[in-house]
Write a structure and sequence with these properties.
The chain contains one helix and ten strands. It starts with 8 loop residues before the first helix and ends with a strand. The relative contact order is 0.21.
Length: 136
C-alpha cells in the first residue's frame, strides 16, 4: 500500500514544466504549455506560470498567471485575496467566486509529478482544467 506524504511549501520550490487541457462542456478546447516557478519570498513563495495558450484553431497566445503561496499552503490571488487551501496530503479544495463554483483536486501520488484538476461551474462557465506538473 502506498503511503501518502504530507507536502510542504519547500517541496514546490523551483521550476516545473506544466501542461494544461481546458475542456468546456460546449465550445473549443484549450491547451496551455509552459513553466511554473515557485520563488521563495518572505512568508512563502511567489508562483508564476508562463507559456503559450492555444484555443481551438486560433493562433497561439502568450499567457501568464501569478499567485502567492503561504508557508501553510494557502494560495492568494495577486491582489492579496484568499483563493484556496492546498490539501497537504492531496485531495479536494473549493473556491466560491460569486456566481461561480471552483472545485479542485490535488493528486500528489506520482510525486515529483503532480496533477491538479479544476471543475468550474457557473452561469457562464462550465469546464474542467487538468494540469500536469513535472519537475524541471
Amino acid at each position: 500500500m502506498q503511503t501518502r506524504i504530507e507536502r510542504c511549501l519547500s517541496d514546490f520550490e523551483g521550476s516545473w514544466r506544466l501542461h494544461r487541457n481546458i475542456t468546456p462542456v460546449t465550445g473549443p478546447t484549450a491547451r496551455f504549455e509552459g513553466t511554473a516557478v515557485w520563488s521563495v519570498v518572505q512568508g512563502g513563495c511567489d508562483y508564476v506560470e508562463k507559456g503559450v495558450m492555444t484555443l481551438g484553431n486560433q493562433p497561439p497566445l502568450h499567457a501568464e498567471r501569478r499567485y502567492f503561496w503561504s508557508d501553510g499552503l494557502s494560495v492568494y490571488f495577486e491582489d492579496g485575496r484568499f483563493f484556496h487551501q492546498v490539501p497537504a496530503l492531496g485531495g479536494v479544495a473549493h473556491h466560491w467566486c460569486d456566481p461561480d463554483t471552483y472545485d479542485v483536486t490535488y493528486d500528489f501520488k506520482q510525486w515529483p509529478q503532480f496533477r491538479v484538476l479544476w471543475r468550474v461551474k457557473g452561469p457562464r462557465k462550465d469546464y474542467t482544467a487538468t494540469t500536469q506538473y513535472v519537475r524541471c
